[in-house]
Specification:
heterodimer, A: mainly alpha, 8 helices, 0% strand, B: 57 residues, mainly alpha, 2 helices, rod-shaped
């Protein structure tokens, strides 16, 4: 908790954020470009799926990010609820739209991959349905967060929703093992190591790291925006307070 | 030239692959633009407010 205390000082955080941001941006763009080249040009087609396997290089990293962002959202919400760190609320609020975007992309690219491989855009099976639930959890979080005049109440209510909704994360991860599904089981993050050739693992990992760096980049921008918004609110409160006196 | 056409055709899966990559890129760029706009707007409003308060003092 000592380190979290250190970061909880907004002035110090802003200094760190400004220093980290260009690095995150550079890593996201650099690894993203390399991942796109390997994924679209240099990697071989799959022996079963042909060229369509290339959708994996955006679909799988986006799905990982959907779960990663929700885990961040739940962790930040827990820190905010238990230790009342003001920055934790802002980090959760900043994460939600990014997580929603990645979940949307995982669903959309999954659909674009499902049509040629499964013959259907959508099936109501465990993996797909639990991902759709995740998308609605993000939307619910965003709506609830903004539903109160007092942002502190919105933050608290939505933090509880984020924690309750976390039960969905292991359900998504293990849905392909627990239920019969069209969706293939894990081939990278599984016991016994990745069951995928290096030529395909490389673009997958590069894209995943690029998405992570993108997350850091954009979330830092959004937290900085929230800090500024908080200062504006505080100044307005002071102004109306002194006018009332 | 036919090499390039073959690249874009993606073995007949181009209609599924290109939208996947294109929409992903578009969504990520849009989220970035919206985040930046939000930051610029709030920082500008804060700067104006601080200037206003300083003037009144």
């Amino acid at each position: 908790m000592k380190r979290l205390d250190w970061f909880a000082n907004p002035a110090r955080f802003l200094k760190v954020a400004r220093a980290v941001q260009p690095w995150a941006a550079g890593i996201a763009l650099g690894l993203g470009a390399a991942g796109l080249y390997l994924g679209l040009v240099a990697s071989p087609p799959d022996y079963q799926q042909g060229e369509s396997v290339r959708i994996m290089y955006v679909h799988v990293p986006a799905a990982w990010m959907a779960l990663f962002c929700y885990t961040m959202l739940a962790m930040a919400s827990a820190v905010a609820l238990i230790w009342k760190h003001p920055l934790a609320d802002l980090a959760a609020k900043a994460t939600a739209p990014v997580g929603a975007a990645f979940t949307f992309l995982a669903l959309l690219t999954g659909s674009l991959w499902g049509k040629p491989m499964w013959g259907t855009w959508w099936v109501w099976d465990a993996r797909l349905t639990s991902m759709l639930v995740l998308f609605f959890l993000y939307l619910g979080y965003i709506a609830l967060n903004g539903a109160f005049d007092d942002p502190a109440r919105g933050a608290k209510a939505s933090a509880v929703l984020a924690l309750v909704g976390f039960v969905n994360v292991p359900i998504i991860k293990f849905s392909v093992d627990w239920w019969n599904t069209l969706h293939q089981p894990a081939s990278v993050l599984r016991a016994g190591g990745p069951a995928i050739h290096e030529s395909m693992l490389a673009p997958l990992v590069l894209m995943a790291l690029a998405f992570k760096a993108y997350y850091v980049w954009v979330v830092l921008i959004r937290i900085r925006a929230e800090i500024a918004a908080g200062k504006i609110r505080a100044a307005r409160l002071r102004a109306t307070g002194s006018a009332a006196l | 030239m036919s090499d390039l056409a073959g690249f874009f055709a993606m073995g007949g899966y181009g209609a599924f692959i290109w939208p996947s990559f294109g929409i992903t890129l578009a969504v990520l760029v849009l989220v970035w633009i919206e985040s930046n706009r939000r930051l610029k707007r709030n920082e500008r409003a804060l700067a104006e407010m601080e200037k206003g308060l300083g003037g009144r003092r």
